[in-house]
Specification:
By secondary structure, the chain is of the alpha+beta class. Helix content is 20%, strand content 31%. A hairpin with a 2-residue loop joins strand 10 and strand 11. It is globular, with a radius of gyration of 30 Å. It starts with a helix and ends with a helix.
């Protein structure tokens, strides 16, 4: 019986192997590849191919205005591959198009993007001070405190340009800013020259205050908030709490003080007062400023400073929390963008804000959906799209646009 059983098993194995070798109905063909090797439009504009990002970028001259009808004159892909776009096709590239490639059972999509040459300045920073860029007249204005200690004859600057553009002099080098400095950007057929002017401020009209000696030593979120103010309000400057307390910065013409404190929540107001030693040391100066009509914008944990100033009672300390079992930041936003309601929608503070379809008339749009919110009302990450322990989800949100508008509205309303 044992011999018969062994023979039967051997026959089954042999039959099984034979069946597997003859049956190809379930096979998957992945022997080829789906790579783009060459892509040319209009016989002269050859694309740069980024296989890792699956991107084909085609650059055209700065004044080229025929992207709505471009002919694919050369397209080379992996041997055996098929594409949805063919040589000879005329395609509208005003928007990005998808190049769909198949090869056997392999599938891959590339994004084809046609971009005009562009030489625009996106960001200018001089020794940590953000400049205000005027794209209409191609100027940059940098407001620097007269007592900042910056050597303007040999100051380091940093820039961010539009994609593919280069600048001269190069970012990260030193230049003389005692007189207007010319910065030239180039991207093939596009060339733009900006004039950088430095304004020395004796008496700032607005200041951002923080613990650090200068802007670059602030944490990322406070740094972004400070640079927003100096880059958007002419005559604004950064000042440390030590400068305010010692009187080394003049507040004679200052109309608004912006205090944004990025830190964990405090269990009560006393916790804030004990931690924010610089702000509390400068409190007498701040009370004087407030009593003579000065305005404050306080955000994140800095909202507690209103209690120190006597502007609101201690029992309204903002400590209401929420959160799920995952701990801080565990709750995702719902299906709709997040907002709060304005008591008076006609107030100048809320003018020209971005909204979203179906939003109530009195809704102030603050955060996109899909963002993981921090767990206390005093911990909204307002100014910098980065991930921190308090803001677990990285995002780029309309929140920042609206906050900028609200800040400028506040400056206009409180100072005029």
């Amino acid at each position: 019986m044992k011999t018969i059983y062994s023979i039967i098993c051997a026959i089954c194995i042999i039959c099984g192997l034979t069946a597997c070798s003859d049956d190809h109905t379930g096979s998957i063909d992945v022997s080829g590849s789906c790579l783009v090797e060459k892509f040319v439009l209009n016989g002269q504009y050859e694309g740069t191919i980024n296989t890792e990002k699956r991107l084909v970028k085609v650059k055209v001259p700065v004044d080229f205005n025929q992207k709505s009808s471009m002919e694919i004159t050369s397209l080379t892909v992996s041997p055996g591959a098929q594409t949805n776009l063919k040589v000879g096709d005329r395609v509208n590239f005003d928007a990005d198009r998808t190049l769909h490639i198949t090869n056997g059972d392999l599938v891959m999509d590339y994004q084809v993007s046609v971009r005009n040459d562009e030489a625009l300045l996106k960001l200018f920073i001089l020794e940590g001070v953000k400049g205000a860029i005027n794209q209409d007249d191609k100027t940059v204005t940098v407001s620097v405190m007269a007592n900042s200690g910056i050597d303007l004859e040999n100051a380091t600057f940093e820039v961010e340009c539009s994609d593919d553009a280069t600048c001269s002099p190069a970012s990260g080098t030193k230049a003389n800013f005692r007189e207007p400095m010319l910065l030239t950007l180039n991207d093939n057929t596009a060339t733009t020259t900006y004039t950088v002017n430095v304004t020395l401020i004796e008496n700032p009209v607005a200041i951002f205050v923080g613990d650090a000696e200068n802007v670059e030593l602030l944490n990322d979120e406070e740094k972004a908030a400070a640079k927003w103010l100096t880059g958007n309000v002419e005559g604004a400057a950064y000042a440390s709490w030590d400068m305010v307390a010692s009187g080394s910065i003049s507040l004679d013409e200052c109309k608004l003080i912006f205090f944004h404190r990025h830190s964990p929540a405090y269990g009560n107001y006393n916790g804030f007062a004990e931690a924010a030693t610089g702000a509390m040391t400068a409190l007498p100066k701040m009370k004087e400023f407030w009593k003579r009509g000065g305005a404050f914008v306080l955000s994140r944990s800095a909202v507690n400073y209103a209690i120190a100033l006597g502007a609101m009672p201690e029992n309204v300390y903002p400590n209401n929390c929420w959160g799920g079992s995952g701990g801080e930041g565990s709750d995702l936003m719902g299906d709709d963008p997040w907002h709060f309601f304005a008591y008076d929608t006609t107030h100048p503070l809320w003018k020209n804000l971005v909204t979203y379809p179906g939003a109530p008339d009195d809704a102030v749009y603050t955060l996109d959906n899909g963002y993981t919110i921090c767990n206390t009302t005093s911990q909204f990450a307002l100014w910098n799209p980065y991930t921190s322990g308090n803001s677990p989800t990285p995002y780029t949100s309309t929140y920042h646009d609206n906050m900028g508008r609200i800040m400028l509205n506040a400056f206009d309303y409180l100072t005029k």
